[in-house]
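Quick start: read one record
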Amino acid sequence: MTTATELYEFNTANWALDNSFMEQLTDPGESYTAVCPFYLVDHPEGTAVVDTGLSHDMLDDPASYGQHGAEFMEAFLPAIEYGPEMHPRAQLEDVGYSPEDIDYLVLTHLHSDHAGHIDTFPDAEIIVREEELRYAHWPVPVQEVFYLEGDFDMLRSGAYDVTPVRGEYDVFGDGSLVTFPTPGHTPGHQSVQVELPETGTVILGADIAHKESGYEREHLASFNYDLSQSIESLRALKARARREGAEVFVTHDNEHIEMMADGLR
């Protein structure tokens, strides 16, 4: 099996939230400052980005973001820290890449903290689950606030190379970067398995859980689309990790991003 060369994680914004929002019924009233990252996978035959973080264009001017604006996001601005050095373009340049170098963009789902800079990668093939593309435009009321048309409306234009997937999808065709469905957080949520030469198997669980403690104790977010399905997907991912001897990283855990500060190889 061919392996990827390196895996990097970069943070686009820090978002202070009530901890019980991240882990159901855990430490209500206590603040947790969550990272909003994206990942870069370097491979001998190309490069891939997984997720795109929180949009700085939206944060700069929520009312003008997308066809109908996102003015309601102004209420969240005091809790969010970001700067130009945290934009995906700037952080890719820090490690010697540009958005034009990216061959594939894998989206675990289309919530605003994961899909905020899709338009930074207009030349990439975009891999997203078919169910997520449908659901993003008509989410259930409890999740409406997490989907911003300005993030993903361009995917309907025909100007972007979009590959809607079902089931598992082998991005490079050699087992080194494989997406697999983990629905529950959203109907079209997917996680990503990466094979590295030194670290071995890594699973990017995305929002299968929001923090390591939530992952271990199965304390998931109450606003998930389907909590029963979320638990099923979480347990299936844990079983996969045991079979593969994989290390699991979830998106918003601050210790996880620190573990990847210098990249994994």
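The domain at 6-259 is CATH 3.60.15.10 (Metallo-beta-lactamase; Chain A).
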